[in-house]
Amino acid sequence: MPLESANKQDNKLIHLELLRIIACFLVILNHTAGYINCFVYDKDYITFELIGNLFIGMLVKINVPLFFMITGSLLLNKDRDYNYVFKKTVKTFGILLLFSIVANFCNQGHIYVPGFIRSFATAKVDGAGPYWYLYAYIGILLMLPFLRSIAARLSMRDVIYIIIARTLITGIIPMIFLFLNVIMDSNIYIAEDFNPVIFTVDCVFYPIVGFGLDRLLEKEKTDKLKAISFILLFMGANVLEIFLTWIAGLDNVYRGFDFLMAIGIFMFIKLIMGKRAGEETGNIGGFIKLVGGLTFGIYLLDPIVGNLLKPLIIGTRRSDNMLLLMSFVYCIVSMVICGVITFLFKKIRK
Question: Is the distance from CB of 79 to CB of 135 less than 8 angstroms?
Fold first, then answer.
C-alpha cells in the first residue's frame, strides 16, 4: 500500500485517493470468511448464486494490483536519490516488523521468537497475513531508481505494448493451454524459464502501467475516452475469468486477466473523477482525501482489530449468503474503527 498521499503531491490526483479506499476495502474483504466461501460450491451445475459469488471473488483480486498502480503513479513521477530509497526502505521494514509482532501476539496470545523469526522471513506470520504486501513494497523501493529510469523514458506506445504482451503471456496463451489440457487430459504450461519480468512480475508490471496510464495520457486523449468502455473491459475480464475458473475447477482460480480488471477500474475512476475536477474542494472531495489518507493505518490495524471484531460480527453463521453479507458489514465497521484510531493518532502526532 503506497505510503505517499496523493493530495500532498497534486490536488488533481483525488482519483488515486478514491482508488486507495476501494482497494483497502477489497483487501480487508479478501481476508474474511465470506470471501473464502465464494469459492466453496458442492454442485456440478452453474447457478446465479455461484456466478454472483465468483463475480465478487474475481473483483476482490484487483486489490493489490490497484495499490501497485497507485504506487507507480506516486513514486515514479520524479527522480528519487538513494538516500530517499534507504530511508523509505528502513521505515517500511520497521513498520512491517512492529505490526507483525503485534498482530502475531494478538492472534496467538504469545510470541515464540524462533518461530516468529522463521515465519517473518517467509512472510507467513500467523495473524499478519495481509502484511505480505509490505514485502513486495520494500522490493519496489529497492528497485525504485531503476524503475524510475524506465518510467522516465516511457511512452504511451510502450505502455500499450506492455499491456498487449501481458495479455498474450499471462492471459490468452494460458487460456489456450487450459482448454487443451481439459480436452487432451494433459499438463501443458509455459516454461518457467520464460519470464520477461516487465510483463509477468506484478510488482514491476503494475507500477509501470499505473504510472503510464496516470501520468502519460494527455488530457486531450483522456477526454476522448469513455468511462463506460472501461467498465465493459472490467466486466468482460471478470466474466471470462468466472468461466475459466469453472472450467479449471474452483480450487484453480484463473488469474490471467486480473490486470485487465484492475486497468478497467483504475481508468474508470480516473475518468469519472477527472470530470469532477472543479468540485474537488467540495465536501465529497474533502471526505475522499481524508479517508484516503487513513487507508495505510486501516490496513495495518485491521489484522489486529479483526481478532476482536470478526467473531462478533461474522461469527460462525451457517447461511452462506449471510456469511458474505456480514463480511461486508465487518469491512465497513473495521474501516470506520481503524480509520478513527488512525485519525486520532495523526492528530496526536501533530
Answer: no
